[in-house]
Amino acid sequence: MTGARFSFSKCVFWLGITFLYLPMIILIVFSFNESRLVTVWGGFSGKWYVELFQDQQIMSAVLRSLELAFYTSTAAVILGTMASVVLVRFTRFRTRTLFSGMITAPLVMPDVIIGLSMLLLFVAMSQYLGWPQTRGMMTIWIAHTTLCMAYATVVITSRLTEMDRSIEEAALDLGASQLKAFMQITLPIIAPAVVSAWLLSFTISLDDVVIASFVTGPGATTLPIEVFSSVRLGVTPKINALATLIILTVSSVAVASWFLTRRLNTRLSLQLAQK
Predict the structure, then answer these.
(1) Cβ neighbours of residue 230 closer than 8 Å, sequence gap 6 or more
(2) 148 with 71: CB under 8 angstroms?
(3) What pTM was computed for the model?
(4) pLDDT recorded at residue 169
């Protein structure tokens, strides 16, 4: 009976893996298709990668999206860390429930609602404050940071809640300031969660198309919007080549972050064991 259960679980596991990764494998294979038709194999060729790097419009959108995702994830992690400290360390203040609800509200709201509300906010600010005069990278950055901060707060809060606070209290007893104890004790302990929150925020910002379509403006087209616009006119293997490069890049970053997180946890365990 145990063997049958194990075989069933193993079968379900491999079916799930196949369902998730087989489309990606097919996409990578067809990115080397000689034919312009995506669904018709015309032979092996790498010409679509050459055409991809020669397409200035797509490459500009790629660089713009990477820059936006970097600034968004950095700001989201900083704000998320501050919010996590408030939620975990300061448990008694009147507006805690309201504060927590406002932080996590973007998690349960549809992207369409978030994008529309941010658009109305920027329009009202432009009318009454004169800023922003035009919508572009700045407005997308604000909107993405608002969304990603909620995810970063949840990830960092879960790690900060499990942390043994006696280590930080010992540093305070030895004369360290609150800021020094946080930077040298707390931050290294929650570093894996901070890295995870940064990567999650980076991925969400890089992938978003709904919110960005509401708050973007001329000259601020991100990669998802560019790809979505080109898909409506007909998919070419050039898009497959772009998706292949994104998959390889994300996979490399994920593996590197896994090794980094494992190394940080090992180093922290050794330091705690020595103490």
Answers:
(1) 236, 239
(2) no
(3) 0.85
(4) 85
